[in-house]
Write a structure and sequence with these properties.
By secondary structure, the protein is α/β, with parallel strands linked by helices. The strands form three sheets. A five-stranded parallel beta sheet has the order 2-1-3-4-5, sandwiched between helices. A five-stranded mixed beta sheet has the order 7-8-6-9-10. It is globular and about 50 Å long. The two termini are 17 Å apart. The mean pLDDT is 95. The protein binds nicotinamide-adenine-dinucleotide (NAD).
């Protein structure tokens, strides 16, 4: 939490669906506690357009410049770049909020150690999934036997994914619910880097990427991204189903993921933290 009377300086890397929604929220909803100081996107026009929309001069041309200016970096780019951005931010003792969680899963322990050594913090919002609170509590000191995630999305949500092409899966031929992937969370995030951030978040919060089971189902006729988690633990059974409305600016992103990042920001800025 920032010191009393000092605003938290925030910069956003990635000005797409999530970055743009978060920028608006910081400027309009958190103006007392925080200030947005920089926007960066590899597509400079996107940072510039967002900056203009917010009626401010926030677009900058390099990630290094963004990191220099702020206390907290929000990563909202893509799986392939999330680790580099997080490592750079933490190396400079900046806090980081990571949205492309699938991209850092393999390097999670490295980032955790770096954050520890630099006195910085890593925030990973629950994203498009509910039930993380229960999983965190269940693993806190009790035994968790099984964690299974079943994700259902419309077939077109998987278009262009390398795994689909390599395995000759014909998305346009799918007429009923079809399991297109089953494996652990690490394998899932490698096969679907942009589609299954929730698997990464769930596994980090619980029993780890190798032990968390992930099933991905292409489901024609649905217009929501549906995530179901099932947990079998010493503390009891947990079942949580989230039926996500799709973000209007990016059909691959759930609206709840944005709201979850805003809620995480609220936790950072406010003295009271609710939820496990
Ligand atoms: N944690 C979750 O539950 C969750 C849910 C949905 C999406 N996501 C992830 O969040 C990320 C952002 O999602 P989105 O819907 O805003 O995507 P988007 O495609 O709408 O926007 C991404 C933006 O990042 C920019 N970008 C790409 N590489 C960059 C780089 N190296 N540096 C700076 N900018 C870069 C792109 O130009 C684009 O403007 C994605 O990785 C997505 O998979 C996470």
């Amino acid at each position: 939490m920032p010191e009393k009377d000092k605003k938290l300086n925030i910069g956003i890397a990635g000005c797409g669906a999530i970055g743009s929604s978060l920028a608006g929220s910081i400027v309009y909803d958190f103006s007392k506690e925080a200030q947005l100081l920089a926007l960066y996107d590899v597509d400079a026009q996107k940072a510039y357009s967002l900056s203009t929309k917010l009626n401010r001069k926030l677009a900058i041309s390099s990630l290094d410049e963004l990191i220099n200016k702020v206390d907290l970096v929000i990563e909202a780019t893509k799986a392939g770049t999330a680790f580099d951005i997080a490592r750079k931010a933490l190396s400079n003792s900046r806090d980081i909020m990571i949205m492309s969680v699938g991209g850092i899963l393999e390097h999670y322990n490295e980032l955790k150690a770096l954050a520890q050594s630099k006195g910085a913090r890593v925030f990973i919002p629950s994203g498009a999934i509910c039930g993380i609170d229960g999983v965190k509590a269940a693993v806190a000191s009790g035994k968790v036997n099984k964690v299974i995630l079943t994700t259902r999305k419309p077939p077109e949500a998987f278009s262009g994914v390398a795994y689909i092409l390599q395995n000759n899966i014909r998305l346009d031929n799918i007429e009923k619910d079809t399991v297109i992937f089953e494996g652990n969370a690490l394998q899932a995030t490698k096969a679907f880097p942009q589609n299954i951030n929730v698997a990464a978040t769930l596994s980090i919060s619980g029993i780890g990427p190798e032990a968390t089971i992930v099933r991905i189902v292409a489901s024609p006729g649905i217009d929501r991204n549906i995530h179901q988690i099932e947990v079998d633990s010493e503390a009891g059974k947990i079942t949580a189903i989230t039926e996500n409305v799709i973000h209007p600016d990016n059909p691959k992103t759930s609206y709840l993921a944005v709201l979850s990042a805003i809620a995480t920001l609220k936790q950072i800025l406010e003295p009271v933290k609710i939820g496990t």
